Amino acid sequence: MKELLPYNKVAVRLETKVENVTGTTVNVTEKNGTAAEITGDSVICALGYRPNNPFVKLLNTSAKETYLLGDSRHVANIMQAIWDAYAVAKAI
Ligand SMILES: Cc1cc2nc3c(=O)[nH]c(=O)nc-3n(C[C@H](O)[C@H](O)[C@H](O)COP(=O)(O)OP(=O)(O)OC[C@H]3O[C@@H](n4cnc5c(N)ncnc54)[C@H](O)[C@@H]3O)c2cc1C
Known about the structure:
It is elongated and about 55 Å long. With about 90 residues, the chain is α+β, with helices and mostly antiparallel strands. It is built from 3 helices and 3 strands, in the order αβββαα. Strands 1-2-3 form a 3-stranded antiparallel β-sheet, with no helix packed on it. Flavin-adenine dinucleotide binds near residues 70, 71, 72, 76 and 81. It comes from Loigolactobacillus binensis. This is FAD/NAD(P)-binding domain-containing protein. InterPro entries: FAD/NAD-bd_sf.
């Protein structure tokens, strides 16, 4: 991917904050505080994920044993979620 982007002359903006998206226009603020507008044919979000497990504390107090696995423990892939489940099933 790192080689394909420059090869296809894709402009990469680092440390740039997306302010809002209107249709196919993205308004951003550059690192130096400059506002800029990027217009394209499509807007595709390819963002990372973080675990979000608000029920763990609640379950910990009401259930005898609680296990966190899969993306709720550590965002990864299906294989990791299956391995997590396997490890828990083997341990209990
Ligand atoms: C767009 C995308 C593409 C992906 N492509 C791949 C791929 O090609 N290969 C790969 O290996 N991995 C891929 N992944 C990652 C993979 O989907 C996850 O790592 C995997 O699904 C994690 O499994 P999980 O059981 O932990 O969570 P999930 O599969 O997310 O299961 C959690 C379940 O809990 C339910 N849930 C959430 N909150 C509540 C609630 N309050 N009450 C009741 N139910 C609730 C959800 O509806 C969901 O059904 C992809 C992920 C995304 C987002």
